[in-house]
Every structure is written in structure tokens, then in C-alpha cells.
Design goal:
Layout (H helix, E strand, L loop, with lengths): L2 E8 L3 H15 L3 E8 L1 H10 L4 E2 L12 H4 L10 H11 L4 H18 L23
Helix pairs in contact: 4-5
Length: 138
């Protein structure tokens, strides 16, 4: 039995195309066939919006503490749906009890690790924000 999937990537984005090729090579080493679909800008945007892909290599701009709704809420990027996640997210939204929050975030993390709807590969660091108080003065 061969495991295979299509990996959609914007063919005009050299860095992501190189990452897609790297993923393809690494998975081929363990017997998983990856078919890279190099899409032009318009087709890529359409594919992303309609969520018509097996797997897509994309990027998002977010803070270092993004809202979990981005990843688990309605209409999320991966079209990911899990009733248990939804229930936990509702509990989080309706409490300020630190122990309950800690427990619920832990449950979310465990489910995320098990199901892995997203795999973060790297973070671009083209922009850096700093504060002068962080600079060591001689």
C-alpha cells in the first residue's frame, strides 16, 4: 500500500517551493509519495480560499500569541473541525478561573498533538521589534 498526497504551493514563492521540495524528498525516504502542485498566484489564492487541497504550504501573519480561533474556530484555514475542541474553546471563553484555563489549554494542546491539523515549519524573521530597555549598556 502506497501512501501519497498532493502538496499545493505557490510556485512564485521560491522559499516555500524549496521547502515543498525538501518535504517531498524527506517523505520519499520513508515511502510516502508527495506530488507537488505548483500553482500560479490566482489559482493558489482560489485553492486556499475554497480549501480545495490535500495539504497546502502557506504562511500566515500572526502575533506571537495569536487567537486560537484562527486555527480552531469556524472557517479556520485548515477547515479543521472537532467537537471536543469546540466545547473546550467555549469553556475557555466563558471562564476566568486560572486553574480551569490551565486545564483546558492543556486539553487543547493534547488534542492538537494527537491530530496535528497544522504543522508549523518555520517563522520568518524579517521584522524584529525591540525595546531600548532590552539593550545592554556598557
Amino acid at each position: 500500500m502506497e501512501l501519497s498526497f498532493s502538496l499545493a504551493v505557490n510556485g512564485n514563492h521560491a522559499k516555500r517551493l524549496a521547502v515543498a521540495e525538501n518535504i517531498k524528498e524527506q517523505l520519499a525516504n520513508v515511502g510516502i509519495a508527495v506530488y507537488i502542485k505548483q500553482l500560479n498566484n490566482e489559482t493558489y489564492r482560489s485553492t486556499l480560499q475554497t480549501k480545495n487541497f490535500d495539504i497546502i504550504l502557506t504562511g500566515i501573519e500572526c502575533s506571537f500569541s495569536p487567537s486560537l480561533k484562527t486555527f480552531f474556530g469556524n472557517g479556520n484555514l485548515a477547515n479543521y473541525s472537532n467537537e471536543q475542541i469546540t466545547n473546550i474553546m467555549n469553556q475557555i471563553a466563558n471562564t476566568s478561573d486560572e486553574n480551569s484555563l490551565y486545564e483546558n489549554y492543556g486539553k487543547l494542546y493534547d488534542i492538537y498533538l494527537e491530530e496535528a491539523p497544522y504543522i508549523g515549519l518555520y517563522r520568518d524573521t524579517d521584522t524584529v521589534i525591540y525595546n531600548q530597555s532590552l539593550v545592554r549598556k556598557h
